[in-house]
Structures are given as structure tokens and as C-alpha cells.
Amino acid sequence: MEQIKVNSPKLFVCTAIENKDEIEERYEKAYINFQSLVADCSEKEAHDALNNAVCKNHEDISLGMLMSILTEPQNSTKCYRDLTLITRDGFTCVLNNLSNLILERYLKFQDTTRNQLLWLVKEMIRNSVSGVDSVCWNLMRYASGGDITPKNIFLVESLLDIYIDNKSWLDKYPVLICMVVYTYLRLIEDHNVPHLMTLRLKEVNFVISLIREHFDEILSLGRDLVRLLQNVARIPEFNQLWQDILLNPKTLSPTFTNVLQLLQTRTSRRYLQSRLTPDMERKLVFLTSQVRFGHHKKYQEWFQRQYLATPESQSLRSDMIRFIVGVIHPTNELLCSDIIPRWAVIGWLLTTCTSNVAASNAKLALFYDWLFYDPEKDNIMNIEPAILVMHHSMRSHPAVTATLLDFLCRIIPNFYPSFSDKVRQGIFNSLQQIIEKRVLPNLQPLFDSPKLDRELRTTVRDTFKEFCSNGEGVSGLREEGIEDLPRGGPDEPAFSDDEDETTPIIAEDTDDDDLPLSEVRARERPELAAALPSALRPFAETLLDERTAAAATALLNACTPPMPTPIALADLFAAVLQDLPPLKISANPTPSELDLTLSSPIFSMFELLLANSNDSKRKLILETFKEIHAQNSVPSVGFSLLLYLKICYEKDRRAERDPAKKRNVKFKMDIYKTYCSNLELKIVECLVNDFEKCQECDSNILVWLISDVYREFKDQVQNHIKLLHIIVSTIDAGQLQRLVCLTLQGNLMMFKTDDFTTMLTTSLNWETFEQYCLWQLLTAHEISVEDVLPIIPKLSYREHAEALTSVLLMLKQEKPTQEVVRQMFCRTVDDEDTFVVSTVMYWCQDYEEKVADLLAVLLSTRYPGTSPNKRKRPGKHTIPPNAPPSAESVLGHLEQIRICCVDQDDMSIFKTECLQKALQHSQSNSNDNLKRQYMQLFSLAWEDELPMLRRARKMASNSMPLSQNLHSSNEDSEEEEIVKPKQAKRRKKAISDSD
User: Fold this and answer.
1) Nearest to 731 by CA among 800, 778, 777, 783
2) Dist CA 263 CA 938 (whole Å)
3) Helix (H) or strand (E) holding 57
4) CB 754 within 8 Å of CB 992
5) Residue 614: band (very low, low, confident or very high) from pLDDT cuts 50, 70, 90
6) Helix, strand, or coil here: 478?
7) Taking all residues of the chain, what is their mean pLDDT, rounded to a whole number?
8) What is the pLDDT of residues 187-227, one digit of tens each?
9) Separation CA 384–CA 405 (nearest Å)
10) Which of 467, 501, 536 is the last residue before a domain boundary?
11) Which of 63, 497, 780, 992 could serve as a FRET partner for 472 with CA atoms 20 to 30 Å apart?
């Protein structure tokens, strides 16, 4: 039969040089498949064909119909109706794919596709399709601020009409209501042009109605709602709303007290993110995570041409700054790298702004989280960019720093006069947090720079006198050398209130924009050296130049009274260590390789600690480490100390020739304990934190340290779940083998019997290879079956396949016992779960009689009213009364075993006398439902005629307890084996006893 050819319509606008991408090809293929099913068919035939096809491939048929709706307006109504009739998941598949399509390709849509998309959204809303609100959310992100082009205005107005026409539907989605209010408040600001006044009036009326009707929900928008309301406050309707917010808050909501309630609530990142299109977001994330400082200008120029080229786009800078401040929070590794930092991107946005109004809004966006900053609720990453923009701009763009400092001083009394004390406190909280977290080592050079206008400098000193009074630094210690800094003279740049006025350029300043980040940091060296006593400054310069252990040792040896402050020393070493390559060793490091590793300056500080020669110097080093830990600038200190102690330990062992004395060489764990104590942290907390950092740095170092850490700190680390997870998530197969070998040699003991079940239960959520590593290590330590028995009933064959397989292989090596069988039969019966039947059938190859006895006893004891009153014997494996398997559970597992035996054509286990008796007893005591459900199982007790003697014995024993007839005449010895079975001989376990 000749294949039907279909010319598929186009979803996207493509240029002549663009190839089809995988998304377009997938939709075209699905469309062709859909058309081949319905072409030349009557409506009934088409419907039958679609129903048949959708059972086999629901997603492809749905995508084919979705493409038809988006590209063929003439067929969309019929196609949507058919899609409604055949969908099997309530449109979930269509909605998910539609959201992805919008996020990835909306900007490439044909005009027809965009129109049809809005039509489809209206239809789904009209039909109350669940989940269409997420499509609306994603679509609204393309209603961009700073854009009044016809296409954007069409989307803005179309979505607004949809919400107005379907107000009752919108009322059901509080989060979407907040998104609509936040979006249109931002857009109203841009629509202040004559040809958009009709749209603006419609937006204003709708947003006002939503705010007043849903004020309780709107409160969750937080402080950025106030920022947006300020921008539209001159519009009469919003002016009246402001009057109610400020003077009559209870008329809006009984729970609303005053505007401070909003200002003290941080706006969710999802709303800050929503004001950038997905395309803008991807570009900014790329810029701040992939582009190296010094190579960023071409990317910024492209971005400016693409998004910031029009006069209307000036207002977009505030959205971008709020996004960078509130959403992009780099990791410590990224902060220490040479990737362009956030402050540099924000500085670029500020310096390229040409509108006074947009510039003021951009500065407010930058400082907005400062105004009501609460260290308990707010994030320091939201205030860090502003202080760093001012700090780094002082050298090459002093006018930027000046205008930001002026803005910060002026906003305290002017933001909201009634709350000026609250604003002052918020800004002071921000500055205090900046100091405590060591974002900057000192605020004095910023607040009292000679590059600032004298009047501004006076204003700053008066406003922030707590941070720069009497020439003292923010730490409260007098900063040496401050008096020697040149003060502003008549030739210094004059600061003006008029931001458009050109500021004189200082000749010695050069633009940092084209320099590598490392060189920009290097320009701060004079500040680092100036914080030290005069005698140490030459040593500090040498250390900054050479970055070697020898230079660091020389500096530390020169530390005599007056001693440097721990803060100054911490800042110096942080600057030295930040740009050094991370520590790395090979899997089996040689002595020469280890000596080379010790060339890092950090090890000089450890050497001084180990020498213990001078108490004041030792205290200085410990306090310096505490400062470094507080500012989190050098995350490798802790594991570097462990590495240093390990290298010293190995050196001492190599130097000792006598084997007996070599065994007595000690790992100097007291040094690490002192380090932890000085940080006021528990040892195990430090170890976990240090292993996390080591994991990110070099897995070979981590593996090399494991045996010593588990030996020296065994009480703290054995069975420690988080530490164990760090290890198994880091190592590869070769490193796992090394740990197993260390265990077999007796040099590594990672587990103890305490809390063993808790550890195993927690590990069930780990990745497959992590669990594989854990069970390999457990096997190497020869844990006993008794240790894993409690988790057997908890293991799901679907979700915990790794653990279940490991336990299965462990049971394969064991003999059957009553306790093991009891725990196995506590598992939920599932036809697809073959754990129990597999274990039992394997045991039956060598221990069939014993297995039959165990199953018989387990089954017979599920009927308390008639169960045997057997003689109790003391032992480890008596059945606890609190967790027995139910009779139905036992029968269910026996039914699975029966089916397996039928498949293998071997019913011998069910022909044993003890199991025959147990089945007869069970049947006679089961209710009718169980008898019907397990009819075939119970029938096994009557398949073969019992010998006459056994039948007579049965009838004579009807009045006797069943268990007295379950065993042969050698009852006592057999029962002893069942109740307390002998364990196979095993080597001594390599596992630590909890005692």
C-alpha cells in the first residue's frame, strides 16, 4: 500500500540557513502520523482509528493533534473536540509539552501559532482543564516589560482579555492571581504613551479589582509589591489604593496592619524571575556562570543590542538587577573562580543607563533588600552585590560609587519618613552582616575614600558614624596606616546632585573591565598589607607575589608584638589561597609528590600549630582559622589540616626502622580536635563539613584519609550516615576496591552494631551506585544476617532493588532459621515481588525438610486460638509478639511458592507431613474468604491419600494440639533445631561492637 504523504505546516519561523531542530522534527513526525490515521476517513472511522492508536502511543497522537490545533485554524475546533474525547490523562501530556514548547520556542512561533496558542488556552480555561494555569504562568513571562512593540502588546492585551472574561476561573488560583497583579503592575509603568492609554485603563481597573478582592493573597508578594506600586502611585486609582494602604489598612484586609508588614516580607524568587523572559534569563545565567572576567565585553554588547537598545527598555534594568540580586546566588566555588561576578554585571547595567528615572529605579532595585533587612529572615546574598559594586567601582568608576553612597544616605529619611528609623536599622543590619560575614574586610576605605567629594564624605561619616568613627575600622580596632592615606584636596572629583553632570576623571585610574579578575583582586593588595603592622608588610607583599609555604613561614615567624589581628591575617591568607589551584594527589602518592603538596602556604600555618612553640602565636593561628571559617572564603582549611597530619604520620612511619616502634607512631589527632574546639563545633560536624569540601576538591585525598579518620575518630564516625553518604557518593569502582581491601586487611572498620537499622533505612534513598558501594563495604565487614533482618519487611522490590538484591545474596549464604523466615513472610505479598519465593526455593535445594518444618510452624502459629502451646526455650530467635506476619500474609507467600513449584513440576515440599498438617489446620481455622482465595493451596493437603497409619494417627489426635504431631518421634531434637538453629561457622566479624 502506498504511504500517504502529508505536507506538515510550520510551527516556527525558520531562516534559510537554519536546520530543523529536534523539537520541530518530533512535532512534524507526530503530525504526519496523526494525519495518516484520519485522512479520507469518516468521522466515526477517524475516531475509532484515533482511539485504537492512542492506546499504543498516547503521547505521539496527542502531539500530532496539538500541532494541528496550533497550525490549522480551520480544523482546530474539530481537532480540539477529538483530543478531548481520546485523551487518557486529562490533558496532562498536552499541557506539559505545551509548557515546554512555550519556554523553549515561543519567540520562534509563527503568527498563526501564537494566535492559536491563545485560542487553545481560552478553550481549556472555558472547559476548566486542570493544569492550564501553569501554561498561563509560562506564557505571561513573555509579556515583557520595557517592550511596546506590536507583538508584545498583542500578547499583553490578549492575556488580559482572557483573565477578564474568565474572572471566576482566575479566582480559584491564588498564586496565578499574584503573578497577574505583579506582571501588570510592572507593565502599566511602560504603557504611558497615547496610543496605549485604552489598554492602560483596562489594566489599571483590572489590577485594582484583583488587589482589593484578593488582598490577603496579594500580601504574599512582599516588599516588591510596594516597589511596583510606587512606580504607578500618580495614577488616580492607585493613589486611592495607597491612601487605603497607609491610612485605612483594615478596609483592605482584617489581617493587614500597615505597609511595614509588606516591606518586611521578602518577595519570592519566582516573581523576580517572572519579569525576565526565559531567553533573557538563560543569557544572564550564562553570563554569570560561564563567562570569564575580562572576556565579557562582547557578551554584554550583544545583550545590550538584543534587549536594551530602545528607550523603552531602560525600565528593564530594574527587573534585571532584582533578578541578579534575588535569584542568581553563586556557589562558593563560583565566587572564588574567575567567572564574571554579579557586581560587575550590575555595575555595567548602572553605567550604561541613560535615563534619570530608570537610574533611580535601578539603584532602588539594588538596595531594596537593605532597607528592611533582617538577618534572621533575609539572605546576605541579596545585599552582597551592592556593597561590592561600590567597593570595586571606587578605583575605576568612582562616580558610580559616589552616586550609590549618596543614594544610600538620602534614602534613609526620604523612603518613607514615618519609618525612617526602620530603614536606618535595616541598612545598619545590612552593613553589620557584611562585616560579620567578611564580604569586605573593612568599610573604612569605602566610606572615607579621598576620591569622594568632601561634602559627600562628611555626609557618609555622619550617617554611618558607627562604622567609621575616629578613624577606627568596623572591627573596632584602629586601622594602622589610615592616617597616612592621602586626603582629598582641591583637585579631587566634585560630587554633584545632578547625576548627568560629568565627573572629572582621575589620571591614575584605569578601567578594570578588560582585566582578568585575578588582577582586579591583586589591585587590592595595598589594603591587605596596610591592615598588618608595618614590620610585616614586606613579608605580606612577598607572600602575595610568591604564594609559597616558604614565604608564609617567613611572615609567620616575623609575627612578634604588636601582633597582627586575626582578621587581617585571615584576609591576607584568603587572598593568597583563593587563586591557587586546588589540592590534588594521585591514588598512591609518592613521598616526593607529598612534599610538593606541602608547598601551599596553608601548610605553614599547620606547621606552626604542630610545633607548639609559642602560645601567643598558636592562639593567633587558631583565631585566624576561626575568621577564615566565619567568612567561608577558604573552604579547604579543615581537610587540608587532616591531609597535613596524614602526611606527617606517614613521614614518621617511614623514618622509623624498627617495626615495633613504627606501630607506635601516633596520628596527631589532638591538633584537629583543638581546631574543631576553637571553631566551637563538634568533631563529627567538622569532619562532615571537611569531607564535603574534600569531595568537591579531590576524591583521592578523601579516600587516602578515610582509614585514618575511621581509626582515630571511630566513636564519632562509625555508622555516621551523612559522612558515609559523602564517601559512597564520591568514590569510583577502583577506590571502592581499595576500601574493601583495607577492610579485609583489618585496617578499616566503618560500622558498628548501634543504630544499624537506622543507617540502612536511610541509605534506601541513595543513588544506585551509592547503595552498591555501601553493600560492598558491608559485605567486606561481614555483617551478620541478624543486623539486616529488621529492614527486610520494609524493602520495596520496585524502589529498593539494590538493597533487596544485596540481602537476597546474603541470605543465599545462610541456612534457613525461624527468625529469618518470619521476617521474610512479613513482607507485603505482591505477584511481581519474587524475593521470598526465590529465597525459599534456593534453600529447598539443600534444606527442604527444614524449610518445610519452619513454614509449618510459622503457618500453624498464625491461629492463636488453637496454636500449639510449645515448650518455650530461651534464645535469640524467639518470635517477638509485636510483629508477626498475618495468616493471610503467610498464605499469600505460600501461594506464590506453590505456583513456582507447579512451574518447576516439583511439589515435594508440600508433600512433607508437617506442611500437610499445617495446611489442614490452617484451612479448618480460616474464614470462608480465605478458603476461597487459597482454594488451590489448601487442596494440596488432600491431593495424595495419606497412609492408613498416618490417617489413623491424625484422627486419634484431633483433640491434641497440632504441633505435637508436626514432627517425627525425634521431636525434642528437631524442635530445638527449629527454634534455635545452629549457625554456620563464620570468621570473626570485622564490625565494631556497640559496647
Assistant:
1) 777
2) 73
3) none
4) no
5) low
6) strand
7) 81
8) 999 998 899 999 999 999 999 999 999 999 999 999 999 99
9) 15
10) 467
11) 497
The stretch 464-477 carries a mean pLDDT of: 54
Identify whether residues 286 and 180 lie together within a single domain: no
Q: Which long-range contacts (CB under 8 A, 24 or more apart) does 506-514 make?
A: 506/398, 506/451, 509/395, 509/396, 509/398, 510/396, 511/396, 511/397, 512/392, 512/395, 512/396, 513/296, 513/297, 513/344, 513/348, 513/396, 514/294, 514/297
d(CA 432, CA 422): 15
Whether 592 and 601 have beta carbons less than 8 Å apart is answered as: no
Distances (CA, A) of 174 to 95, 137, 167, 218, 620: 20, 12, 12, 8, 56
Q: CA 613: distance to chain centroid?
A: 45
What's the rounded Cα separation, in Å, for the pair 42 and 788?
A: 63
| DSSP three-state, residue 12 | strand
Identify the three-state secondary structure at position 339. strand
Choose the weakest-confidence range: 166-170, 481-485, 885-889.
481-485
Contact call for residues 539 and 454 (beta carbons, < 8 A): no
In a domain, 812, yes or no: no
CB 662 within 8 A of CB 653: yes
Specify whether the CB–CB gap between 123 and 85 falls below 8 A.
Answer: no
pLDDT value of residue 116: 93
CB 656 within 8 A of CB 665: yes
Beta bridge partners of 723: none
Residues belonging to the chain = 995
Residues 285-307, mean pLDDT to the nearest whole number: 88
Eight-class DSSP state of 667: P
For residue 164, give Cα distances in angstroms to 160, 167, 228, 230, 393.
6, 5, 21, 24, 47
DSSP string, 763-831: HTTS-HHHHHHHHHHHHHTT--HHHHGGGGGG--TTT-HHHHHHHHHHHHTS---HHHHHHHHTSPP-T
Same domain (yes/no): 299, 200: no
pLDDT 10s digits, 675-704:
898 888 899 999 999 898 888 888 899 999
C-alpha cell at 686: 567538622
Do the beta carbons of residue 58 and residue 83 sit within 8 Å? no
Instruction: Kindly report the backbone phi and psi dihedral angles of residue 371, in degrees, each rounded to the nearest multiple of 5, phi listed first.
Output: -65, -35
Task: Report yes or no on 741 lying in a domain.
Answer: no
**Residue 307, C-alpha cell as written in the block:** 534587549
- Burial per residue of 657-666, b for 16 or more beta-carbon CB atoms within 10 angstroms, e otherwise: eeeeeeeebe
Residues 6+ apart with CB under 8 A from 510: 396
- Is residue 45, in this structure, part of any structural domain at all? yes
Distance CA 797, CA 800 (A): 6
Nearest to 365 by CA among 175, 193, 219, 231: 231
State the total domains in the chain.
4
* 302 and 440 part of one domain: yes
C-alpha distances in Å from residue 801, one per residue of 17, 765, 808: 49, 11, 10
Check residue 388 and give its pLDDT. Answer: 92
Whether residue 276 sits in one domain with residue 197 = no
For residues 784-788, give the mean pLDDT: 85
Helix (H) or strand (E) holding 14: none
Tell if the pTM clears 0.85, that is, is over it: no
Q: How many helices (H) and strands (E) does the chain have?
A: 56, 0
Phi, psi of 752 (to 5 degrees): -140, 165
197 and 327 share one domain: no
